[in-house]
Structure formats: C-alpha cells, structure tokens
Write a structure and sequence with these properties.
Tetracycline Repressor, domain 2; single chain; mainly alpha; flat; 115 residues
C-alpha cells in the first residue's frame, strides 16, 4: 500500500500543477511566510505523518524493520518531491524519466525497510 500511495503522490507532483505549486512555494517562501506556513502544515506535514503512520503499521505488523518512521517518511518523500520540482523547472526532457525514477525509488525504499 505504501508503494502505491507514494507512486501516486510522485506522479501527481511530476505530472500536474501540484509540482508547480510546490516549486512556487519554495521559491517565494521568504517573501510570503504566512502562505509558506499554511502550505507546510496542510500539505507536506500531513503527507509525512500519513506515510510515517503506514511505516509504523508495517513495523508493528512485522513487515518492516525497526526504524525512525518520521525520518524514514522524510527520506521517502523528498526524492519524489524533487522529481516534481525538476519536471516543473527543467523537464520534461530525455534526461529523466519521472515514472521510472519514481518506481525505482519506491521499490528500493520498500526493499530497504522490509524484513
């Protein structure tokens, strides 16, 4: 379930306006701190907590090894977000296949957590 959810989120940021919004918020964070704080609490904070919950559930059910679920969620999401930023800044181009990158990252991350 974690892998499918992450692939969906990665594709959302890579192939939609969500990646452009993320890029804009990051670029203008210092000029619009209230907007940045709203976005931070409504989007990445909620998303990271949901992923951390899934990781904790996997640990409790014996699917994943013990780890810091919050740190793992952050490590999991940042490459997906960076793919979205890239696709809305430099790409799309032949250098990066966002779907292949997202699939590779998700698969390897799950393998790394699995027992």
């Amino acid at each position: 379930m974690l892998e499918l959810k992450a692939q969906s989120v990665g594709r959302l940021f890579a192939h939609s306006e969500q990646g452009a919004i993320l890029k804009l918020v990051i670029a203008e964070a210092r000029r619009f701190p209230d907007l940045t704080e709203y976005y931070r609490t409504e989007v990445p904070e909620r998303g990271l907590e949901n992923i951390a919950k899934m990781i904790r559930r996997g640990i409790n059910e014996g699917e994943f090894r013990e780890c810091d679920a919050k740190a793992a969620a952050t490590a999991f999401m940042f490459p997906l977000l960076m793919t979205g930023i890239w696709m809305n800044s430099v790409g799309p181009d032949e250098i990066i296949d966002p779907d292949a990158t997202i699939n590779f990252h998700c698969e390897n991350f799950i393998r790394g957590l699995s027992i």
